[in-house]
Amino acid sequence: MYGRIIAVADAYANMTSDRSFAPPKTDEQAMGELGKQSGTRFDGMIVRLLSRLLKMERTSTLGGAI
After folding, report:
1. Longest dimension (CA), the chain
2. Going by C-beta distance under 8 Å and a sequence separation of 6 or more, which residues neighbour residue 12?
3. Phi, psi dihedral angles at 63 (to 5 degrees)
4. 18: which DSSP letter?
5. Cβ proximity of 42 and 7 under 8 Å
6. Considering only CA atoms, which of 37, 50, 36, 53 is closest in space to residue 5?
7. Where are the alpha helices (DSSP H) in the chain?
8. Rounded distance, CA 44 to CA 35, Å?
């Protein structure tokens, strides 16, 4: 189970960080890529949980700025 969590977290971190060979993807782009591979390469439940957590974080950040 931990390996599946780390796989999703690692892929997300790699896609959203600046790399020498590729510019960083936005959160939405990275989640789109994870979503495409959800259920095959990545655990679908973990991808959905990450998506939900990112939405909650975005909402709380926006709510605090108002």
Report:
1. 40
2. 30, 31, 34, 50
3. -65, -35
4. -
5. yes
6. 50
7. 2-16, 27-36, 44-65
8. 8
Distance from C-alpha of 35 to C-alpha of 41, rounded to nearest angstrom: 10
Residues 8-29: tens digit of each pLDDT: 999 999 999 999 999 999 999 9
Note the pLDDT of residue 64.
57
Place of tokens 């990450």: 50
Structure tokens at 23: 């510019």
> Rounded to 5 degrees, what angle do the CA atoms 11, 26, 19 make?
55
**Whole-number pLDDT of residue 63:** 65
